[in-house]
Every structure is written in C-alpha cells, then in structure tokens.
Amino acid sequence: MAEIQYLLWLSTCPGLPPRSQVALLRYFGTAERVYYAEGEELTAFSLPEKAVSALRDKSLERAERILERCDRLGLFLLTCRDGTYPERLLQLEDYPLVLYGRGRPVRFDEEAAIAVVGSRACSPYGVKMAGRFGFGLARAGALVVSGLAQGIDAAALKGALQGGGAPVSVLAGGVDVIYPRQNDWLYQDVAARGTILSENPPGTRPDGWRFPLRNRILSGLSLGTLVVEAGERSGALITAHAALDQSREVYAVPGPIDAPMSAGTNWLISRGEARLVNSAWDILWEYESRFSHKLRHPNLVTQEEADQRLEAAPTPPPEPEPRAKEEGLPVLPRTQLDQMGEEQREIFLLLAEKARTADDLVGETEIPARRVNTALTLMQTMGYLKELPGRRFAAAVRFEEQG
C-alpha cells in the first residue's frame, strides 16, 4: 500500500498533535511502521488515551476518502517524504506530515519567501503599508506568504498580485474552504496566480484553535516574517514569536506611539525582537546574494505611482451599509471605540456588520472562547452590544466616522 495513505492516516489521527506525529514518525522510521505498532510500543510517548485509541484504529477509510476528494477537487498533496517538500519546514519539531494545495506547487527552498502578517482590525495606515510592502516585495522577486484574513493579510496579498507576484496563502481550514467568505475574490485570484496551502484535509472548518497552529507554517515556509501592524494581543505576535523560535528573522513596520494598532509592532522593535523596516529592500538586501537568480532591482516606481496601482487593484463588490446605520442607533464619539482593547474593537466591528453568535466570533477572530464571552458580557454591560434571539449579538450603537 502507498506510503501516502499511512501518512494521511497518521496526520489525521484525532487527539494527536503535530509534534507527536513527528516524534512517532522519527522513532518508527515510516508511517507504515507506526500503523502496525502495537499498544505497548506506544507507551514510551506518554500519549493521551484519545490519541492511543485513535492509533489503534487501523481503518484507512478516512485516508481513502481524503484522496478521493483531493482528486475530485483537483488538489495536489505534498508529503514530508517528497523530494520537493520544503527543507525549511523539516527543520521544525512539529512540521506538517502532509500539505494540501491548490494552484501551482512551489519549491520554497529556492524562493526568497517573506511572510506578511498583521491585525484584521487594522487602521488605514496599516492597510496602506501592507499593500506597499506586498507590492514592493513582489516587484523585487520575493515570494509573499500570508493568510487570507481581512485587514493586513488581504492588503498584502492584493499588493503582491498588483506587483506581478504569485503569492502563497496558508489557510487554517481546508484549502477548499474560503474564509472569510467576503474574500472569495481574493482566494480566486491567489489560486489562479499563486498557491493556496493547508495542513488540514479539504472540508476542514477554520476553527479558532487552528489559526495559531497555522501560524507556524506561515513563518516556517519563510526566510523572515514582517509584522505590519498589530495590537498588544494580536495573533500576528504569535506568528512573530513562532519565527523567532524557528530562528527566523522578524521585521516590523513602526507606527505612531499612541496608535493602539502599532503597540505590538513598536513593542517588538523596542525589545530588539524585530528589525525596523521602511521598504521591501530593507528586508531583502541580506538575501540578495543567496537568491540572485530570484531577486532583482526593478525600475523605480515613485510612491505616488505605486499607490495609484494599488488603488487600481481589483476590489470586491461593495458591501451594504451596516444595519446599525439603517436602524438609527445612537452615535457615540470615535474616541470610545479607539479606547477599546484590540479584541473588543475587533469583535465590535464584526458585530457592526451583522449579527453573529459567540461561536462565529471565535472562528473569525482566533480569540479563545473564554475571552470572546468575557468581551461580549463587558460590552453588553457598557451598552455597546445587544443580544438577539438565538444567542446572536449585534451592535447597539455606532461610532462617529473617522475624520
């Protein structure tokens, strides 16, 4: 039987985290030997009972269904046994045994790949900077790697596409699950020009707990990670610290000292954990000799011309005005929104678009359920939110537009 079926069986064992999968594979040598291992052979790994039970289940039906679905959807698979699997990922203690992909396969070890990350609830400054860096990196021949979230991810990918690049987007759910749905246009553009990747089988929901796991792949595929804009508790800081743990470089875009969305990036810079950068070549100069076949100094484009190109980039159709405005809700000063914590602000902005459940918010924000529920309770107490039937929440006020 093909090794890939055993790798799929091992990589999808319930309750078995990536680090344990890698440890088992290294100990037994092949996924097939793990498959045939008896219970007593597994005791040395101190695995939870759920994982041991999963390893005792020798059915390969799940693996066969995954292969059939990948074939039906036209997806490619890349396993840790393939010669084209990134050596950069193999350096990790918890590398994914299998990657699922849509688009063009990439030889990452031959690419000057830079991960670009940041907050979803970012400022106009953050959107502009992410677009500029995505554009500049792509024009210089670098490979832009990001997620697919609203905010910094979307702006960076949009900039990379406009700069002629073929970016890579790493998803927390399956490669066939477009999330958030409003980024369908961006997903289609990246899949057509670049690559969509995930360690999860097709059809997997992008549950909140999967995003921190996904982040190690973003940084692991890349030479360095650029944090464009992040608050004090932003998920982008998880990616930055994953990069540091992987002995990769971290870069950060500075922002105003009183801007909440620049608190995280300024903190990284002040602690010496990230290098302050102002342009794509502030990042790429040290890789130029190693990737001379990829990196180039393109014809100069003024910042005004670059911004004009970014403005001209395809954008999704406009969304209808939030219901809060239609219902004539009370208007509060913008300063009250700015004074919220990053997580509260991100949750409020989502609920200003449409009503959502707490579970919806956990999946869309990567914020743990406990903190989502705390934020909902606090904002209800302050009169910012209201609860609707079906345990859904919506904005009870709206804030003044930025001047």
List the keywords:
403 residues, DNA polymerase, domain 1, Arc Repressor Mutant, subunit A, 3 domains, 3-stranded antiparallel β-sheet, 12% strand
The number of helical segments is 19
Number of strands: 14
Number of domains in the coordinates? 3
Largest sheet descriptor: 9 strands, mixed
- Please report which band the strand proportion falls in: under 5%, 5-15%, 15-25%, 25-35%, 35-45% or over 45%: 5-15%
- Give the uncertain stretches in residue-range form: 317-326
C-alpha end-to-end distance? 64 Å
Determine the structural class based on helices, strands and strand pairing.
alpha/beta
**If you consult CATH, what is the topology of the largest domain?**
Rossmann fold
CATH C-level class of the largest domain: Alpha Beta
Radius of gyration: 22 Å
Can you put this structure into words, describing what you see?
The protein is of the alpha/beta class and 403 residues long. It folds into three domains: 71 residues, DNA polymerase, domain 1; 211 residues, Rossmann fold (3-Layer(aba) Sandwich); 77 residues, Orthogonal Bundle (Arc Repressor Mutant, subunit A), CATH 1.10.10.10. 43% of the residues lie in helices and 12% in strands. The strands form three sheets. Strands 1-2-6-5-4-3-7-8-9 form a nine-stranded mixed β-sheet, with helices on both faces. It has a three-stranded antiparallel β-sheet with strand order 11-13-12. Helix 12 links the parallel strand 8 and strand 9. The chain is globular, with a radius of gyration of 22 Å. The termini are far apart. The relative contact order is 0.10.
